[in-house]
Amino acid sequence: MTGPAPQPVPPSRWKLPDPAAEPDGEDFVGVGADLEPGTIVDAYRHGLFPMPVDEGGEIGWWSPDPRCVLPLDGLRVSKSLRRSARRFTVTVDTAFDAVVEACADPSRERGWIDQQIQTAYGQLHRLGWTHSVEVWDEQGELVGGLYGIEVGGLFAGESMFHRRSDASKVALMTLVDRLSAGVAPADLGRRLLDVQWTSSHLASLGAVEMPRQQYLRRLAVAVTLPPVLG
């Protein structure tokens, strides 16, 4: 079931870098601009996403090459993960700020989510563009989750966390189920679940890499499709 459409955002006043023109294998493509809603949405439409260059520093714009995506028809779910999922309650968009705050825990290795990122994506959530998946244990404690932005048929995952074994995997499994609901099998391949860079964790779940130019071609189609979550 599709939720309310996201609210329109003003166009960006910045001309962001064109990732198609960047050298192969170069992930970092520019610095500057702002984190206004229109700037961020425009960036994702064109294959970019923001991350601070350093703590409290300028915003960098990134377009990984290769890019890691999780095919909606390619998620690998083991029997043990299905059993593990029964231990949790999963919700969508009920605790967005808490999920982002957990993902921003400064004790996490390679943490990059600073206050300006939290504020910007919180604003986008209130406008209907960003979404969270929350995983709760039997005591009602938030023990895992993820958040990202949906632009048409693109869902770009930004970060995930877990405080119990398998909790982040259950969040991702639920996201794939929601993004696939009601979509004809032949159309699943036109949509994109972007997870940015690969990891052994994501690869074990079925994530694959593709060259940036292939990703940009796929993206041009995906963003023309209707969103699923909002």
Structure write-up:
- This protein has 230 residues and is α+β, with helices and mostly antiparallel strands.
- It has 2 domains: 19-64, Alpha-Beta Plaits (2-Layer Sandwich), CATH 3.30.70; 68-222, Aminopeptidase (3-Layer(aba) Sandwich).
- It has 7 helices and 10 strands.
- The protein has a 7-stranded mixed β-sheet, sandwiched between helices.
- A hairpin with a 2-residue loop joins strand 7 and strand 8 (154-162).
- The radius of gyration is 17 Å and the shape is globular.
Brief sketch in words of this structure:
This protein has about 230 residues and is α+β, with helices and mostly antiparallel strands. It is built from seven helices and ten strands.
What is the secondary structure topology, with strand pairs?
Blueprint: E1 28-31, H1 37-45, E2 49-52, E3 59-62, E4 67-69, H2 79-85, E5 89-92, H3 96-103, H4 115-126, E6 130-136, E7 142-151, E8 154-162, H5 167-180, E9 192-196, H6 200-204, E10 208-210, H7 212-222
Parallel strand pairs: 8-9
Antiparallel strand pairs: 1-3, 2-3, 4-9, 4-10, 5-6, 6-7, 7-8
